[in-house]
């Protein structure tokens, strides 16, 4: 990969190019590009008792059709789509609303609000997971008391412990933590909209809502699209929150299993099941393909159609 | 504000209630954002009974105690874990900045074969998480005999941080006027000197932004410490907290104190860097 102009006799070998690009490129290729490609290759092999043999797409077929594997795989994939849907439906609209409010002209304290609301995003997902585990714990009763105080006490439940609600609760915790990202990105775009465009719309008699709907929203659509793809990649790569709160088994009864935790268990094993590098690689490859397809769809259909506005 | 506008009757005194509504919503959300963190921190300083009797009250002279912190510090190596995190983060961020700036400079300034391919390779890394290569990274680290070393983490984090660094810094290099480097070349200043004495100092503001964006995921990462360096000696603070809290779930004082101890360094970092972070986000560094 090292660029070379050796056959070009007029110029000396570009040592400075090797010097500037070499170290970074080397580390990046060895510890990121090569492992990713090697994982794709490894997923086509099967290793038993130290013997590795080429099996083609067998690992994927096993993953998708075999009784012991497919149930766990489809469960994790389905959960991952639910997890993503909740982020898209809750996190990004709230982020948009907060950004719109923050960008109100001459709003006092907007910097303070922005800084404080962004704070949870900075913290480790592990810490956030434990914090919410404590808050939602029926033993401590903080959430329960709060709900009783606003007259909704009968709805309190051990949400994190029940199959039906654990995944949704974890998704909401994640939404709570990361709402700062869409907020900041959309806010930044809103600030960059030139005043004249907004003024012109006001002069034309549009009220604030019409100005938002017809002028600002089209201008922030590229940012919303980008926020969506970032959410997608982050969600299909999520692991820490589930692992911190529920452990590698993603309980109760795998109801909170995501592709990330499924990958971890497949690779390292758990309880009676032995870990397998090649099956782990197959799961990682599927995750890779899912993310790649998402990114490609985004680049080819959404990013292309939405015109980027340069101010 | 624009959404709320419709709900508000248009009148001369509209300005006042509108901004009050905006403040009410933002304030309410700020409380939602901070409440969990505050509850954990104040309870870390309380006796066990007070934690349950009055979870929302501030510690008073009766209930104040540091017993949780004592237990955490005695039963685990928080100092060591923090030190490990600090070493890994500083080395990785420092090298991402240096190597990223060098690569960004090479890719934007020089035309050569493979330039486009390498640029594309780095761009891919922004979207494809390095975590998906874990199976191979682990076997690579085993064969390099780097498992349970901080070096393994530093190397992986450099690889993880470089794509975004190269992208942001390349954008920034493009804004540097060509005249500057051309003048230097006319005076036959070497390429190395041009980069280190002219370009690198100019890149400082962009590098600060890159530093913040690179630092947060490294400091908070659980995945690679768990897989590449789970040993007692190399544990990072995130992994340390994860294991400590998992082990002592029923000891509320310790759990709350451990969480507080883990939150504090991030809050300090955030106060120092929040201006840079927000500037980076609002100046479109990640667009």
Overview of the structural elements:
The complex is a heterodimer of chains A (about 300) and B (about 290). Chain A is mainly alpha-helical and about 300 residues long. Chain A has helices at about 15-40, 60-65, 65-100, 110-120, 125-135, 140-150, 165-180, 180-190, 195-205, 210-235, 240-245, 260-270, 275-305; strands spanning about 45-50, 50-55, 270, 275. In chain A, the strands form two sheets. Chain A has a two-stranded antiparallel ribbon. A two-stranded antiparallel ribbon of chain A has the order 3-4. The longest helix of chain A has about 35 residues, at about 65-100. Chain A is globular. Chain A starts with 14 loop residues before the first helix and ends in a 6-residue tail after the last helix. The mean pLDDT of chain A is about 85. Residues about 10-15 of chain B have low confidence and may be disordered. Chain B is mainly α and about 290 residues long. Chain B folds into two domains: about 1-70, no CATH class; about 75-245, MetI-like (MetI-like fold, Orthogonal Bundle), CATH 1.10.3720. Chain B has helices at about 1-5, 15-45, 50-55, 65-75, 80-110, 115-125, 135-145, 150-175, 180-185, 190-200, 205-220, 225-230, 235-245, 250-280. The interface between A and B is large, with 100 and 97 residues. Chain B: InterPro entries: MetI-like (IPR000515), MetI-like_sf (IPR035906). Chain B: Belongs to the binding-protein-dependent transport system permease family. Chain B: This is sn-glycerol-3-phosphate transport system permease protein UgpE.
Biggest interface, CB < 8 A: A-B, 100 and 97 residues
- Estimate nothing, just give the exact number of structural domains of chain B: 2
Portion in strands of chain A: under 5%
Structure summary, number of beta strands of chain B:
0
Going by helix content, strand content and strand pairing, the class of chain A is mainly alpha
Radius of gyration of chain B: 24 Å
Low-confidence stretches of chain B: 9-13
Order of helices and strands of chain A: HEEHHHHHHHHHHHEEH
State mean pLDDT of chain A (0 to 100 scale).
Answer: 87
Name of the CATH first level of the largest domain in chain B:
Mainly Alpha
Rough outline of chain B: globular
Can you give the mean pLDDT of chain B? 87
Secondary-structure element order of chain B, N to C: HHHHHHHHHHHHHH
What is the straight-line distance between the termini of chain B?
A: 25 Å
Tally of helical segments of chain B: 14
Q: Reading side by side through the largest sheet of chain A, how are the strands ordered?
A: 1-2
Shape of chain A: globular
Give the CATH superfamily of the largest domain in chain B.
MetI-like
Number of helices of chain A: 13
Helix content of chain A: 55-70%
């Amino acid at each position: 990969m090292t660029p070379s102009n050796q056959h070009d006799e007029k110029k000396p070998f570009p040592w400075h190019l090797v010097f500037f690009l070499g170290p970074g490129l080397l580390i990046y290729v060895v510890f990121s590009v090569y492992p990713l490609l090697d994982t794709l290759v490894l997923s086509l092999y099967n290793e038993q008792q130290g013997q590795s043999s080429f099996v083609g797409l067998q690992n994927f077929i096993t993953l998708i059709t075999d009784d012991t594997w497919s149930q766990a795989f489809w469960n994790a994939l389905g959960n991952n789509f639910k997890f993503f849907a909740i982020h898209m439906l809750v996190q990004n609209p709230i982020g948009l609303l907060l950004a719109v409010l923050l960008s109100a002209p001459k709003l006092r304290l907007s910097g303070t609000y922005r800084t404080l609301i962004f704070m949870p995003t900075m913290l480790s997902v592990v810490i956030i997971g434990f914090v919410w585990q404590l808050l939602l714990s029926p033993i401590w009763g903080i959430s329960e008391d709060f709900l009783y105080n606003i007259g909704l006490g009968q709805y309190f439940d051990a949400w994190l412990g029940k199959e039906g609600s654990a995944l949704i609760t974890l998704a909401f915790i994640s939404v709570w933590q990361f709402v700062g990202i869409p907020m900041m990105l959309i806010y930044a775009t809103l600030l960059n909209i030139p005043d004249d465009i907004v003024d012109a719309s006001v002069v034309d008699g549009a009220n604030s809502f019409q100005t938002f709907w017809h002028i600002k929203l089209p201008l922030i659509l590229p940012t919303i699209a980008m926020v969506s793809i970032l959410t997608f990649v982050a969600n299909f790569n999520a692991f820490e929150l589930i692992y911190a709160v529920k452990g590698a088994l993603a309980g109760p009864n795998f109801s909170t299993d995501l592709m990330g935790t499924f990958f971890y268990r497949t690779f390292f094993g758990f309880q009676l099941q032995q870990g397998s590098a090649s099956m782990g690689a197959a799961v990682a490859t599927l995750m890779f393909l899912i993310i790649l397809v998402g990114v490609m769809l985004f680049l080819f259909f959404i990013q292309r159609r939405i015109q980027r506005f340069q101010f | 504000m624009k959404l709320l506008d419709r709900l508000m009757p248009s009148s001369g005194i509209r300005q006042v209630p509108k901004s009050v509504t905006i403040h009410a919503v933002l304030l309410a959300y700020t409380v939602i954002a901070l409440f969990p963190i505050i509850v954990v921190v104040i309870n870390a300083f309380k006796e066990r009974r007070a934690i349950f009797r009055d979870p929302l009250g501030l510690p008073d002279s009766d209930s104040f105690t540091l017993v949780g912190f004592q237990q955490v510090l005695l039963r685990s190596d928080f100092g060591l874990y923090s030190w490990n995190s600090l070493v890994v983060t500083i080395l990785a961020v420092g090298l991402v900045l240096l190597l990223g700036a060098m690569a960004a400079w090479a890719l934007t300034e020089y035309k050569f074969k493979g330039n486009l391919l390498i640029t594309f390779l780095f761009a891919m890394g922004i979207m494809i998480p390095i975590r998906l290569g874990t199976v191979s990274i682990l076997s690579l680290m085993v064969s390099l005999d780097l498992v349970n070393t901080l070096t393994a983490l530093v190397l992986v984090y450099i690889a993880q941080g470089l794509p975004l660094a190269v992208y942001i810094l390349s954008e920034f290099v493009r804004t540097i006027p060509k005249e500057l480097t051309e003048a230097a070349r006319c005076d036959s200043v070497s390429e190395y000197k041009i980069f280190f004495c002219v370009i690198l100092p100019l890149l400082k503001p962009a590098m600060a932004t890159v530093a913040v964006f690179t630092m947060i995921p490294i400091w908070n990462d659980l995945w690679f410490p768990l897989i590449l360096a789970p040993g007692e000696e190399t544990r990072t603070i995130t992994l340390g907290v994860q294991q400590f809290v998992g082990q002592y779930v029923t000891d509320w004082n310790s759990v709350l104190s451990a969480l507080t101890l883990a939150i504090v360094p991030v809050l300090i970092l955030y106060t120092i860097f929040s201006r840079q972070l927000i500037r980076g986000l609002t100046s479109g560094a990640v667009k």
